[in-house]
Structure formats: C-alpha cells, structure tokens
Design brief:
Blueprint lengths: L1 H27 L4 H23 L7 H6 L3 H23 L4 H27 L16
Length: about 140
C-alpha cells in the first residue's frame, strides 16, 4: 500500500517534469535539442531506477530523513553529481561542444545506466538497512 502511494507520487512528479520540459522546448525553440534530450533521458532513467529499487525492496530515503539523520555520505555524493549536471546543462545551453564527444558521452551514459540498474536490482533483493543491523546481519552482494 505504501509502495503504491510512493510510486503514484513518483509518477506524478516525473510526469510534471516531462510536461514542463516539453512545454519549454516548444516555447523556447528547437535549437537546444541535445540539452532537452539529455534532460529527458536523465529523468526517465531516474524514474526507472527508483522503480527498480523499490520493486526489489530497497528503502530509499528522502531529503528530509537524510538531513534529519545527518547522512553525510548521501550529501557528499549529491554535491559532485549536481556539479556534473550543471556542467552538462551549461555546455549544452551554450552550444560549445564536439558532436563526436557528445555521442561517446551518451553511449557511456547508457552503459552506466544499464550497469546501475542491474546493481540496484541485486542490492534491492538483498536489502538490509545498515543503520539498523545487528552483529549477525550483513549486506550480501
């Protein structure tokens, strides 16, 4: 029941993001196609990875619980990811890039996404919240 509510909320949020991207794409013009393609791929991948993780039983923390529990690992991982996203957005927005390098980057991104989804599935199957483990519990890969 809780998972279904969370999935419906995820679907609604990601649908709003996609609609906002589509609206701004048609409003601003077609000269930023690669930027919008990257953003759509990133949003779809994020949704699929959340779905895969939850489907196989992983408990995903939201930002309120991350900040409340002072989970510095999640914060430390998010800062460089945000920096990389901003760098990609600025690069595509300014139009200063090489087509070959962008195609190679998209290929590497797709391979990484596939690998990440496989890992999420396996981790979800063997999920044990590390903050609540006893001496006999361990996360098995």
């Amino acid at each position: 029941m809780v998972i279904k509510i969370v999935e419906n909320k995820d679907i609604a949020i990601f649908s709003l993001f996609i609609l906002a991207l589509a609206y701004s794409y048609f409003l601003l013009g077609y000269d930023q196609t690669l930027l919008y393609l990257f953003l759509v791929i990133f949003l779809v991948y994020s949704f699929i990875s959340l779905h895969v993780s939850r489907k196989y039983g992983a408990q995903i923390k939201g930002w309120p619980s991350i900040l409340k529990e002072k989970d510095y690992t999640s914060i430390a991982l998010t800062v460089p990811q945000t920096g990389l996203m901003m760098a990609v957005l600025i690069t595509f927005y300014t139009g200063i890039y090489s087509t070959i390098i962008v195609l190679i980057g998209f290929l590497v991104m797709f391979v990484g996404m596939g690998f990440n989804l496989m890992v999420r599935r396996e981790l979800g199957k063997n999920w044990v919240p590390l903050s609540k483990t006893t001496e006999n519990q361990e996360l098995v890969f």
